[in-house]
Automatic annotation (TrEMBL):
Cofactor(s) this protein requires: FAD
MF-aspect GO terms: flavin adenine dinucleotide binding; sarcosine oxidase activity
Family matches, as Pfam families: DAO
UniProt KW Repeat keyword: no
Keyword annotations: FAD, Flavoprotein, Oxidoreductase
FAD dependent oxidoreductase domain ranges (all copies): 4-353
UniProt xrefs under PANTHER family: PEROXISOMAL SARCOSINE OXIDASE (PTHR10961)
UniProt protein name: FAD dependent oxidoreductase domain-containing protein
Annotated organism of origin: Roseivirga misakiensis
Amino acid sequence: MSKRIIVVGAGAWGGWAAYHLQKSGCHVTLIDKNGPGNAWAGSGGKSRIIRLAYGGNNDYTNLTEESLKLWKDYDERWNESLFHQKEALWLFRGIPATYADLSVPLMKAKGYSLNQVPITGLVEKYPEINFSDITSAFIEREAGYLEANRACGVVKGKFEQLGGRYLQANVIALSKAEGRVNGVILDSGEELSADYTVLACGPWLSQLVPAIKAHIHISRQEVYYFEAPSQYAALPIWLEFRGADQMYYGIPDHFQEGFKFAYDERTWALDPTKDDRGITEEILRQMRKILANRFPALAKANVLKHHTCVYENAQDGDFIIDGIPGTKNAMMLAGSSGHGFKMGPAIGRLISDHLLEGKPIPTAFSLQRFADSCPRKSQYEVN
Ligand SMILES: Cc1cc2nc3c(=O)[nH]c(=O)nc-3n(C[C@H](O)[C@H](O)[C@H](O)COP(=O)(O)OP(=O)(O)OC[C@H]3O[C@@H](n4cnc5c(N)ncnc54)[C@H](O)[C@@H]3O)c2cc1C
């Protein structure tokens, strides 16, 4: 069956959903107000980590493994280099390595490894890193990073090559009648009609689906690029757990743009439309403290670049992929919660298989879970 589908949002999720739907024979219109992977969006910026360790979560391990294969496969088919393999060093500081321990069997079952390594060996191998307060460490060899904003542009281009229609426009409302969504209304007043509408609006979703506000909070995620000596480029990706909702990570060789360093806390709120995206001195101070502790020689490193990005967090850190309440023929892809980029290819395929063949969406992503009291946490909290 050939369906007319509108996808709003050309980030990692909407772009891949549009691509797979168009590839499966639908007539898709992909709409974005600021362009694929734009600097204000969750998919903005140059890179995203892909790692298979997922704290024993089957859904995410499956989606990530499928995505890793798809990223590699499309890189080959399209002659792009969106995926860069680089091993990841997982560090645990004074807390049990539960997240890693739970990841090991699921990864092993799929032929991947996450190996605990003795800290004494790491001290010798990586003299740039201070391991004195690290209690356990793991190496994930198959990890890497993806080119984020470039990937969104490439996917949109490939979607157009398949005959998909891309529009740069602002959607201001769903066009609804008696529970049916007939399409969308643009700020120009133009109305576009479709058989099915998919909203992948990232942090702006609540403008079109106000009910989602109760389950989503948007956080400010500042990313810093520090000047570092050239030998730092050889260091692995590192992810460091310091407590329940405290995680820091970095990509040391970041396209010759410096040592990328960011945090995973979700404590600083952000209005994605109105708030200033400049440096927050309090955040920079905190980042410097962590950096000086882990990479002592970088204690006074210059900031070469800064980017304020945005997480669209579900209250429990899990994705929300479900129908739009009160409608029959529209769905939303939401709550990517700071870990959704890597899974774009598999999520896009899932949406296409769901709409065209009825493939079920994992129940963990349904809105129904919020009917019971649902704690606010991050995806890294596995207990
Ligand atoms: C600093 C940072 C680091 C991250 N690190 C990782 C990582 O290492 N690994 C990982 O897997 N994930 C990571 N993530 C998370 C990941 O990037 C996001 O989960 C993912 O990119 C979200 O994609 P999206 O398509 O849902 O949303 P977005 O990329 O935000 O896309 C939504 C799009 O919708 C458009 N839009 C919204 N409303 C409208 C409208 N009304 N009309 C028209 N267009 C509209 C916007 O312009 C935007 O382009 C990170 C995120 C950040 C911010």
